[in-house]
Amino acid sequence: MNRRLSRGFATLLVLWVAAIASVIMVTVEAISATQAVAGREALARVRAAWAARAGLEFALARAEFDSLNPSTSSVFALFDDLAASGEGRLQDSAWRLSYTDQDGDRLGVRDAHEKINLNIATAAQLALLPEMPEDGPDSVADWIDADDDTRALGAERSFYQSRLYGYKPRNGPFKSIAELELVVGMSAEVVRGEDWNLNGRLDPNEDDGDLSWPPDNADGRLDAGLSAYLTVASVDGGLGVSGEARLDLATATSAQVVQRLGVDAVQAQVIAGYGASSGATITTFISRTLRQLATTAGLDQAAAAAVRNLDREQLGTLLNECVIGDASGGKPGKLNINTCDAEVLEYIPEITPTLADAIIFERSGRPDGFRSVADLLDVPTMNNQRLARVAQYLDVRSNAIIVSSRGRDSKTGIEVEIVATVDRSTIPAVITELRTQ
Q1: Which helix (H) or strand (E) holds 96?
Q2: CA distance 369 to 387
C-alpha cells in the first residue's frame, strides 16, 4: 500500500514538475516573442530615423551647393531642385521631403523667409495678424525688451513670476515660435492652430475633425494659427547673390567696387565715399542718385554734375552684393518677396493690400522671380522713395529653409520625422533647430 502511494506521489510530482516546466517554457517563449517584436520595431525605427536623416543631409548639401554656386537663371532654383528630387531610397527604407501649403501636400522644403520674423515685427504689424490677442503686441514687445517697464497691455517679470509655476520673460529675441505660447494672452491653440507639431504639414490627426487631438475642421487645408505668418528662423546677411562674401562699402576701396559692381571709376568713388560716411545706409542708394551723394564722397559740384547715376541693373547688383557695416549672419531675416503670400506682404509697413496684389501680379509674370529688390520699381505705384522705405524689410533670397524629412521603414511601415531649420548664411551651413518625432 505504501509502495503504491509512493509511486502515485512520484507520478504526481513528475507531472507537477512537467507542468511547471511547460509554463516556464511558454512564458519564456512569450517573453522572447515580445522581445523579438520589440527588437524588430526598434530596428525598424532606427532604419526610419536614419532614412529621415539621409533626407535632411541631402537637403543640407544641396543648400550649401546653391549658396556657393547660385543659379543665374532663377531665384527658385534651390526650391525647384529639392521639389524635383524630394524622395529617395536606402536599403529597406525611404525618405521624403514635403510640406503643406494652400494647394495641399507638396514635395520639397519650405522657405523660412516666406514669413515675418517675430523678432523684428512691429506692434502695428502684429496687431493686424488674424487671431492676434489684443494684448499680444505689447506683451511680445515686453517679452523681448531688456527693461522691466510694462507697456499698457503688456507684462513684465513681476507678472510672470507671480503665476502658479513662475518663470521669467526672456528679455531677448524669441528662440522658437513655440516660445510665443509663454507670453501672456497667447495659447497653443492661437499659436499653432491645427499644426500641433509645427511641422508645416497637414497630418492625419490634424484633419479628422474631433476624432483626435487637436481640434480641426477636417477641410483638407492646414490652419497654422499665428505660425502661418510668423517665424524666428529667417536669418539676415549671408553671401551675395554671386556666391561671394558681401562687399562692405564702409571699408571697400573704389577698385573693389569697380570689380564687384561693374561701375566706372567715378561711380565707384562716390559709392565707396558715401559707404564710409557716418550714418550711411544701403537703402539710401535707392532713394538718392549718385549725383546727389557725390558731395558726400568729396567731389566738388562740377565733378558731381558729371557723375553717371546707377542704372537699374547696377542698382540691383549693389543691393544684392553689398552691405554697409556688419555683414555677419545671426540677425533676424527679411521677407522674401519671391516666396511669401500676398496676405503676408500686407503686414509690411507701407505695403497696402492694393500694392501687395500688384507685387504678386508682377511676380506672376516673372517665372524666374524678382532678381533684386530694385525690380520692384516695375510695380505700378512703386517709386524710389517708397521702395527705400520698404526695402529694409524685403529681400529676394533666403538664408534659411525648413526641412521636414520623413523616413519610412519598408518592412514595417514605421515612420520617423525630422523637422530641421538649415541656416546657409554661413559656409558650411548649420542646423540651428532639430526635432525628431
Answers
A1: strand 93-101
A2: 17
In degrees to the nearest 10, what's the CA dihedral of 298, 301, 307, 312? 90
Residue 327 confidence (pLDDT) above 70: no
Q: How far apart are CA 114 and CA 398, in angstroms?
A: 9
CA distance 319 to 32: 66
Residue 147 and residue 188 in one domain: yes
Structural domain containing residue 177: 118-222
Look at the chain and report how many structural domains it folds into.
3
pLDDT in tens, 232-275: 999 998 889 888 999 999 999 999 999 999 999 999 999 999 99
266 plus 299 within the same structural domain: yes
Q: Is the same domain home to 181 and 276?
A: no
Q: What is the mean pLDDT of the chain?
A: 89
- Per-residue 3-state assignment (H helix, E strand, C coil) for 137-203: HHHHHHHHCCCCCCCCCCCCHHHHHCCCCCCCCCCCCCCCCHHHHHCCCCCHHHHHCCCCCCCCCCC
On the CB side of 43, how many CA atoms lie within 13 Å of its CA?
10
Q: Are residues 350 and 384 in the same domain?
A: yes
- Give the pLDDT band of residue 354 (cuts 50, 70, 90): very high
C-alpha angle 83-87-88 in degrees, rounded to nearest 5: 140
Q: What share of the chain is helix, strand, coil (3-state, %, to 5)?
A: 45, 15, 40
Has residue 146 been placed in a domain? Answer: yes
Distance CA 427, CA 62 (A): 12
Residue at 366 is within a domain: yes
* Predicted pLDDT at 300: 82
What is the length of the chain? Answer: 437
pTM assigned to the model: 0.86
Q: Tell whether the model's pLDDT for residue 4 goes beyond 70.
A: no
